[in-house]
Amino acid sequence: MTKQHRKSGFTLVEILIVVIILGILAAIVIPQFTEASSEARESTLTSNLQVLRSQIGLYKIQHNDTYPDSTTSTTFENALTTKTLVTGVTDANGEFGPYMQKVPENPFVTGAGANTLFTFGTAANPSDNTSHWYFNTATGAISANDSYDGSDADTNPDHTDL
């Protein structure tokens, strides 16, 4: 009599079941990582806006109720990142500032607007991704200038109320 030996290993059905279970687990876990990334960028944006608003407010208090020079993005940035006189003129021996080491970036801006920090105007925020921040020269309000689509039920896609 010959003895039959069973070969050890997995059958095709067992392997398919394991692959299906792994696929289901991946379908559950991967969207959570995507949401965490979006939430982290939103949190960074909120923090950056708070810093900008507080430093612009401090600048205004120390410079006779005037905002930083908004002639260009560079002059605005220089007013916040270098020492200034009470008149707002940048001066290495100025008595005020610097208010920050560098202007933070908007984590939602990519592409053509990624190199421009500020857009200025008196109308509503354009939300056109042409710069990181929009500074309303009439009201002194600063907001994120981006076209984030708000796909995670964000009720304010241009982040103006953050």
Cα distance spanning the termini: 83 Å
pLDDT averaged residue by residue: 85
Element order, helices and strands? HHEEE
The helix fraction, in percent, is 25-40%
- How many helices? 2
Number of strands: 3
Number of domains: 1
The structural class is: mainly alpha
Beta-strand percentage range: 5-15%
Rough outline? rod-shaped
Largest sheet: 3 strands, mixed
Radius of gyration: 26 Å
Uncertain runs are: 151-158
**Strand ordering within the main sheet:** 1-2-3
Features of this protein?
162 residues; mainly alpha; 3-stranded mixed sheet; rod-shaped
General description of the model:
There is one protein chain. The protein has 162 residues and is mostly helical. It has two helices and three strands, in the order ααβββ. Helix content is 37%, strand content 7%. The N and C termini lie far apart (83 Å). Residues 151-158 have low confidence and may be disordered.
List the helices and strands and how they pair.
Blueprint: H1 12-62, H2 73-81, E1 118-121, E2 133-136, E3 142-144
Parallel strand pairs: 1-2
Antiparallel strand pairs: 2-3
Please outline what is shown here.
The chain has 162 residues and is mainly alpha-helical.
